[in-house]
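Risk register update: the risk of archive-format incompatibility is retired. Evidence:
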Amino acid sequence: MEKLLIIIALVFAAPSLLAKKKDKDAKKKGKTLKQKEGGKSPRPKLDLSSGLKFKDSDSEKEYKVSGRVMADWASFNQDLRRSEFISAAEVRSARLGISGKLYNNWEWALKLDYAGGSADIKSASASYSPIKGLKLSAGLLSENFGLDDNISTAKHPLMERSLQTGAFGGDDRLGVTINYASKRFMVELGGLDDTESQNGEVENRTRSYNFRASVAPLLAKSYGMHAGISAYEHIHRGGEGSQREAKFSSRPGVHVTDVKLVDTDDIKYTDYVQAGALEWGLSLHSFLFLAEYTLVQVTPLKNAAAGIRRRNFDGGFLLVSYALTGQSRKYDPKSGSFGGISIDKSSEMAGFGAMELAIRFDFIDLNDVDLKGGEEENYTFGFNWYLNNNFKLAANFIQVNSERSGARDRPRVVGIRAQFTY
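Archived output:
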């Protein structure tokens, strides 16, 4: 925790320390502008289109406050075989974000989530752009892995991301990343670190190296195509061999329950984990098509107990969504991801908002010879009603088909979400 606080302090202090000289220049510039305009200083600009945004035109600084609240409810018509689901409700997310820009080449961001009853730091970072398109970031960052994981939960066509993203998706860790983006291409490299300790002794230290690249072979106002690859390697160090653990599991399409029908439990004596993903997406007028496949390999320590071998898991999904009211999801080649549904003023004033249908098939296989983590296939049908650009109501129906150690589960799940974002 002390290490995290020190790094957060450094990354937030760096832009201010390095910007002092520019502040002086900006003040001189402000005086000049004031003289030219007859003694009147330029007024700061306030923008409410996407969060609360404040821009100081004198010193070229920008500050933004954003947030979201998601309230979920889920009901389970269970198959009465292995698992006991309980219908329940929860605050899925209560997030507050504060970010800013300095002189077009410095950026900083802090995101907190209060859904668990206390402030949970989701990210805390500072970024510097020495040249156009290149960005260097440091702090508490998310591994850039997969297309599905790069679409915000608040903007996703369905309430939750796919099974394979839940199990294999990138984690939040301390480290640095290097990103280069152009009008049609993006590539990022990252080096992150996560240490678990108890009583002052390191039990499991994970060093992560990740890579992601994407290209937009087709890109226009009404359509955009994405093709990408992602990879990461987690190297486990520290502690005894039995303490070097990896684990993969995933919820059945809703976050309300803690029951996971697929779960490897702790895979002990793990040396390193390698994962690779193939990504594809297409936004075509009111349609959105997404597809992704991920393969994961867990390699044990060389001196591991007899019988422990290399293990392989995989998962993937296909998703199609359609905006009934004609809106389209824009593709951003600089981040390699698709945005959300945006409502124009005429539709918002008419009171209809926007409506969207979505369907997804996803699967995951966590079985490998003697390790029985289970297999699961889900069919998810979703309906979204965007009352305006801030309020959204979502309903998902999920047919779950799973098997683990010979026991089958086929629960049917209904999930409902009320969401507010700013």
